[in-house]
TRAP transporter large permease
Amino acid sequence: MILLLFIAFFVLLILGVPVGISLGVASIITILWEGVVPLLLIPQKMFVSMNSFTLLAIPFFMLTGVIMDKSGLTQRLVNFADSIIGWTKGGMSYVSVTSGMMMGGISGSAPADTAALSSVMTPSMVKLGYPARFAAALQAASGSIGIIIPPSIPMVVLGGIASISVGKLFLGGIIPGILIGILFMVASRIICIKKNYGVSKSNSFSFSYFIDSFKKAILPLFAPVIIVGGILTGAFTPTESSVIAVVYTLILGLFVYRSIQFRDLSSIFMEAVISSGNVLLIIAASSLFSWILVSHNFPQILSSLITSVSDSPFFIILVINLIFIVGGMFIEGLALLIMFVPILLPIAMGAGMDPIVFGVMIVINIAIGTLTPPVGVCLFVACSSAGVKLDHAMKSAIPFVLVLCFALVLIVLFPSIVTFIPNLIESSI
């Protein structure tokens, strides 16, 4: 039955059927072929998988990302980052990464952040002499940081299905997210100097531009402070923080900056509904897929297979990472997460890995998947915006994929990178 499940799924993927539908149809085919489970159980399982207070954060974070883009808050953050480091050699690459980090502290969606960054940054970078393929790869990489720095939609989903504290996952992602952002900037610096990419808008830091952009960006900059600060202090849960993010960005867009009107809300809400619907369909179908795997003892089979080769903790963690890196090339990140986290988490914990470290490690793997074809959702979004071929941009994305792989090695070897802030906050309460 497990073989039929995977064959049906990959055949549908090869035929170009969307991931969510492929998962659902493959699961239903397997259930019908087996003829044991009542069909009434299928919608029940799918509904129960989405009937979660934790997952309620997903549509609200999606909506926050759309509001930021449509109301011009993204442009304000980009201008502020530009005022600080845009004047240096390769400065626009730093601006992209810094903007991605700031946006990641608000929306939690890598594709949404990539789309917003691409619309703002790619045309500017091309005008300043950066190749379009490099600009596209950089926006995709910068957008991928959005699911590592809190808040993060994959962390919300992971916490919900694995019964791990979402708040601790958020806190665990802070240092790795900042570290990856810095490493992205270092990689960009080396590439820009080596290949002589881009020219600076100016030759020196402009204090007046900095003050002006800071004044315009100060209120949007407060958004991640409110969201993360509220979670740190226990003022509200991660799910409640998603609602606060929507309300805050709506107030800025409607009443403070007046960059959107009430008549724009219908299209904004519709865009968020469509994006959220796609994600929730994947969650529901993936949960059904995962349930079939678990009911046929796939976790025990996989665990026995891994430990039969070696029971070394490092080997087990290596295999888990390879499963997600290779799987992320072909399967959308959330689907992969829901399919395999319930199976692999007990194996990782048996190898001595902290569940928070495991969660952050998986999210970084998902970030790698957003940059690697044929799925590579962030790279695809960035290439569509820049008008470049996916294979050309992929070559430029390789250094950023290597940075993410290096970050994986670091958190496996030094798990305190992840656990430091959660433990610090827990000890101070």
Remarks:
- The chain has a mean pLDDT of 89.
